[in-house]
Queue: 2 jobs
Job 1
Amino acid sequence: MSQLYRAAAPDGLIQHPLDSMTLVFQRSSGITHVIADPVPAIFEVMAEEALTADDIAQRLSASYDLENSGDAADIVFARLVELCSLGLVERV
Amino acid sequence: MKGLHHLYLTVGPARFRVASTWQKPLDQLAVLYKDYPASPDDYADFTVRLEPEKPWRRYIRPSVHISGDYWLPDAAPLPLGQSLLAAEMGMNLQMALGWRRHLLLHASSVEKDGKALLMTGLSGSGKSTLSAMLAEKGWRFMGDEFALLNPETGMVHSFPRLISLKNEAIAAMQAIVPDGRFGPLMKDTTKGDIRHIVPPLDAVNRMADTAKPALLLFPRFGYDPVLRDMGKSEIFVRLTQASTNYVALGETGFRSLTRFVDTVPTKAMDYQSSDQAEELIDGLWSQLP
């Protein structure tokens, strides 16, 4: 899992937290995405850096109390694949 | 538009030209909209066209095809006896597909003390009937179809077209509204029986007055009376479904709707009678800041 990922430029996305969900308006497509945990946290730890899924999982483990961190990288990878297909994250 | 009769109508911020092969629907509209502001010129935001589906259908089993600046390719024509309904549907269609100055919410709205109560929901939820009923009980009617949300100010603009009553709601409103404000009864339309009411004169005279959105309800008719909280995510998603131009407005629509969801108290309201609904609404309204 050495593939690097970077979140879309912050000025291209407007994030708006509601209750259990966060809205993400994507300026390039005009699409409103509704995201739930752990995706907002993934965005938060990625900031504007290029990171691997393992890097992101480690940062999540450091910031959040994850029960079984062994699966975290797999979960993060699955979410990154989805986010890439939506254009919210890009492979570097 | 050679050979077509014309009528210009102003409803809230929108101006319509209704062009028709037949004079009769325009005469009906002219009577029902007689207290609305006259058009000072021949400007219109939208044109609605009421024409026969085929040339011979002007005379033989006449049927009205709705078109205009915006139209639906698969819209079925209506019998000439329902031409008033066709005109109203045509105006709604132009707004739903073409209006860009405000975020459109498929909601009824009424106002009191400068604050607006909005009600949205599926067809049959009672939002139109409730707005008509409240309009007879001290509230200012702002619209039974679309609430127009100003993207810059967040205020609700009025769109007080004729109130469209269906089926049982017709008799219920006949009990409290004078005869002179009713349009013709149109039986057996695709939505059942339909009859229009002219909004109270105050609603027409004050249709340029905006109101601050103060309460949003999702009414549901036919269930034991109860008020329920709703999550903001659910409210947001349901309002995107209730808006005909949220996607078209892009970032402006997103910012308008998030501001609305963040600031306007919202409840789901089940009820079985208009009296129950009025009691629940009065209770909520009295608790507003």
Note: The domain at 5-91 of chain A is CATH 3.90.930 (Outer Surface Protein A; domain 3).
Job 2
Amino acid sequence: MMVIDEQVLADILGLMSQLAGDWEYSGAIGPETRLLGDLGMESLDLVVLGTMIQHRYGRLPFAEYLAEIGQRPVEERDVTVGELVAYVCHHRGRTMAGGPR
Amino acid sequence: MTSKALCLGLDGATFSILDPLMARGVMPFLRDFIKRGVRAPLTSVMPPLTPPGWTSLMTGKRPGQHGVFDFFQKESLEGEYFHFASSQDIQSATIWSLASDHGRRVTALNFPLMFPPPDVNGSVVPGGWMPWRQLRLGCHPPGLFDRLKALPTFDARELALDMALEAKAIEGCADEEYADWIALHIRREQRWFDILRYLMREEPADLIGIVFDGVDKLQHLCWRFLDPSCQPAEPSPWEQEITALCESYFRQLDQILAEIVALAGPDTTVVMASDHGFGPSSDVFYLNTWLEQQGYLTWAEDSNVQHQETPLVGFGQMTRHIFQLDWERTIAYAATPSSQGIHIVTRRPGSDQVMAPETYLTIRSDLADALREVRHPETGRRLVNGVWTREEVFSGPQQALAPDLSIMLEDGAAISILRSETFVQHRDVPKGNHRWEGIFVAGGPGIRSGAAVDELSIVDVAPLLLYSLDLPIPVDMSGRVPHEVLSSGELERRPPQSMAGSVPVVSPDREPVEAIYDAESEATILKRLRALGYVE
């Protein structure tokens, strides 16, 4: 079972809520919220969000993660906030050398 | 009085377009400013591309020193994955950080590679591939985005990047979309200027820079409407309309430049520069298709030939090559069209088998020779006019992350990394593509008047800006203070100061292979190369 750091979850939820306010997205944002399907993000948004997340949490194999998402069937090509948080928690500080990017 | 400097970036600007516009009275301010100042061709770096070009301007260093080679950066020396290039990839001080470190205030608007924003003394709104939905994250200091959001003309969606619109510049759009697309860029430059005007009035800075990137976008898509030599003898009403709209863009840009220079005041040294030049482009070289035909690359079984209508790689496809190639049978590939580079597979993905150095050097040398001999299948003329190894073109502490080979094509032909039935395709109408020769214009205190000088390098801009601010110039900058643009006696009156450079973060070169390159691995690699017909 994936262990989720509540602080990371709170940070990323806060980040997404702050950004979504600029998009005039009025719905609630929680772990089940889909970044593309619900928030209307595009693929480059995910790439840049990954840059900011690595800036905060250190280097992650984000390119591989994006590649894996890109290979999914079109209807499954999305990420929930909870999945993103789980990915960060799982890989943080364990997979790549180097500090924050 | 504290000295001030202003850097006006015109992305991709070239005198071959600007000179006729000035001559026709479309850009009277620029024409008169040049008469009062200095102009020169400005040579960009390899590749002549926005991220390495502007980074070289901001650092005074070449890509092998600052570490930015493309829109995407290699994740690791041997790996096949790339990440989105960001400010974290710049392994050098910049004019912004250097001025800040000396207590000077800076404003940097719409420069690429400024995300995440550097912690400078002043204001940053990043440009480049900064999506509008996350522009807030790119603004520095905290609170700046909300202040800008309160401006009446602020519109993040039009200010920052919209990928669908960006794609049109590269991949083209329907005729009926041109007018709206150009109008958007006219509005967009105005929005950037509104932000700059607000900051110049409310939060004055000593070093101010802004990039207007609509120049690049219009030249990509609308080259045939901008280049007088491409104009038809009897243009259609639609062609006349688009040509007039393009002129409107440059007329407005000229007015914006005039207002900024007036706001900066007569005591400010003004430098206008482009990150690269531009020229017409009619051919597309399908580099990976050519590599396949030469036996260096094998497509994955499920990769498809691309439709001709979209010959250039789209956005959001930075990992396309991962799945399009058969990594068991590929030894060289191009990962992006923009880098103009070829990577040699020295370690097969998922394997610890590393190519021996002598094998690598042989493959690279043979591949370079083959590239030099590529001929256009229809005209027979040479297609590649320059091939360089990374040591030749990217010498420096970051060279290990650069492509193994870099190429420049004849006549500014574009590169595609997609699969095609033929390795060259011809466009029906010319588009604009990057060239090395950009523009340099300067004026103000200490700058010569009415002079046209020989070409300068883009790495000379940072030393000149620091010199104009009376700040010391790091000794590790590649560029120099271009004395030929300065007024007589200026250097004697105010000699440049120097300071120690920063200790470079060296990207280690490929790991020693002895520890893992055993006889079995060697046999496997040779078998793979033999299967490709590469070795006997």
Note: Confidence is low (pLDDT under 50) at residues 307-316, 511-518, 531-536 of chain B.
